[in-house]
Design brief:
Radius of gyration: 12 Å
Oligomer: single chain
Shape: globular
Structural class: mainly beta
Strand content: over 45%
Number of helices: 0
Distance between the termini: 34 Å
């Protein structure tokens, strides 16, 4: 896993982070280690208020600041979020 993320997306509000290790504080923000076996889920609102979900293709790291999420574009796909709760 690399600590150097190559892309960012504006984040106006973090909604949910689950299936990630406890964050490590860095100069940029909170860095989460993502393990795909733990069914990771990061849901946030983008700059215009649409709920978005990060889908992970492999184990990686993601850094979350107050204004944006930094990630490697080869590791992550961002899609509209499904906020419906199961059960």
């Amino acid at each position: 896993m690399s600590g150097l993320e190559s892309n960012s997306i504006a984040c106006s509000m973090l909604i949910e982070v689950k299936g990630c290790q406890d964050p490590k504080l860095t100069k940029l923000g909170k860095q989460y280690a993502v393990d795909t076996t733990k069914e990771p889920r990061i849901i946030f609102k983008d700059a215009i208020g649409n709920a978005r979900e990060m889908k992970f293709k492999r184990n990686c790291t993601v850094t979350i600041t107050h204004e944006k999420i930094l990630y490697n574009r080869d590791d992550v796909e961002i899609k509209p979020a499904s906020l419906a709760q199961n059960g």
